[in-house]
Structures are given as C-alpha cells and as structure tokens.
Automatic annotation (TrEMBL):
Domain (GST N-terminal) ranges: 16-102
Record family assignment: Belongs to the GST superfamily.
Identification of the protein by name: GST-like protein
TM region(s), chain numbering: none
Source lineage: Bacteria, Pseudomonadati, Pseudomonadota, Alphaproteobacteria, Rhodobacterales
Length: 230
C-alpha cells in the first residue's frame, strides 16, 4: 500500500496488507461491500460518512478527487498497489481480479457491462434525484415539476428493468456485478418512501428479483458494511 497517501493518516489500516475499502452503506457504497463478500476477498472496511468533513476532506480527496464514496486501495494489485474510485470501475476491477461475476469475453461480458452502465448512467442518478426531491432537502421546493420529472423517469426505468427480467432470475444471465449495481437502487425506493409513487407494486418481476437478491447471505452482510454506527 502507498503509505504516503493522506487517507492512511485519517483512516489508518490495521492490516495494510489487505484491500482497504472506504465507504458508507448507501446504494453505491454497498455495491462494493456486497461484491467483496460475494468473492470472499479479505478486506478492511473504513466508515467514511457523507458529511463534507469526511468526503470533502483533503485525506479522502487524495484518493478520490471527486469526493464521493466508495473508493479502494488494493495493495495486491497486478503490478503493484491500485487506488481506485467510482463504484462501477471498482466492480469491474474486482471481477477481473477474482475471475468472478463477469464473463471473461464475448457477448455475455458485453451484456453485463451494458446493464452495469445502465445503472451508472440512468437508474442510479435518476433514483438518487427522486430521493432528493421526495425525502431530502429538495422536498422543500414547492415547484412540483422536478419531483414529477423524476417520478416519471423512475417509472420508465423500472419498466425497462421489469421487461428485462421477464423469464429470467438475473438481469444479464447469471448473477453478476450488474445485479450488485442495480438491486441496491431498487431496494432504496423503500428508504426514499417512493414505492407507491413509482408503482412498485405493478412490477412483479422487480419485486421477485429484489427478494432473490436480498436473500443472498453475502448481500445481507454487505448491506451493513461499513457499520454506519462506527
């Protein structure tokens, strides 16, 4: 590990020989803790809150200049230590490192990556904005148009997922990093209090899909890593 990275002063590693995860249990954060639990890689988790004093600190932005969780340092990367941010990039990196949850080549690999990008570019940002305008500070805005926009877009995206899941258990064939990216965001609809607004009950494939996902022991562990209570 690069011991000179300022993050090691703020969040010191007790086992610097292990992969270090810097995260918080949001939908984006748990993608990585779930993947680590699924693969069985040894790692050490550090709680980085969403407060500016953590994610915007010099220590954290030394690892992720964008100031967002999650991020990792892998002291055992191919050719040397790897410092990485962006949840989608981390999922791909871990899949390639372990040879798990991402086909090695061909159409199957391309499909998994397409659905991962669907989450990164569409489902996650849109549901995140929906949560902002429904539950958080944006809910104080009287103009109904932002909230309506994101409710409508969430409905549309859920319809895309619903159709893709018709006749299949997982989003892109076998269980993959695409599922670890998508399912936590579907689960967040309950936290945001928007299941009714988005017509969740009219998406039976999504409902069964999320139940299958949440039944996995590694998912149940990963959903609470790092412990948000410190």
């Amino acid at each position: 590990m690069n011991r000179t990275n300022p993050i090691n002063g703020r969040w010191p590693a007790s086992r610097p020989d292990l992969l270090q995860l810097y995260s918080f249990p949001t939908p984006n954060g748990v993608k990585i803790s779930i993947m680590l639990e699924e693969t069985g890689l040894d790692y050490e988790a550090h709680l980085v809150t969403l407060a500016d004093k953590d994610v915007k600190s010099d220590a954290f932005t030394a690892l992720n200049p964008n100031g967002k969780i999650p991020a990792i340092i892998d002291p055992n990367g191919h050719g040397g230590p790897v410092e990485l941010f962006e949840s989608g990039a981390i999922l791909i990196y871990l899949a390639e490192k372990t040879g798990q949850f991402l086909p090695a080549s061909g159409a199957a690999r391309a499909e998994v990556l397409a659905w991962l990008m669907f989450q990164m570019g569409g489902l996650g940002p849109m549901l995140g904005q929906l949560g902002y305008f429904h539950k958080f500070a944006g809910s104080e805005i009287e103009d109904p148009r932002p909230r309506e926009r994101y409710v409508n877009e969430a409905n549309r995206l859920l319809g895309v997922v619903e159709a893709q899941l018709d006749g299949r258990d997982w989003i892109a064939g076998d269980y993959s990093i695409a599922d670890m990216a998508i399912a936590p965001w579907l689960n967040a609809l309950e936290f945001y209090g928007v299941r009714e607004a988005t017509g969740w009950g009219q998406h039976p494939n999504c409902i069964r899909y999320l139940e299958r996902f949440m039944d996995r022991p590694a998912v149940q562990r990963g959903m609470n890593i790092p412990d948000r209570n410190g």
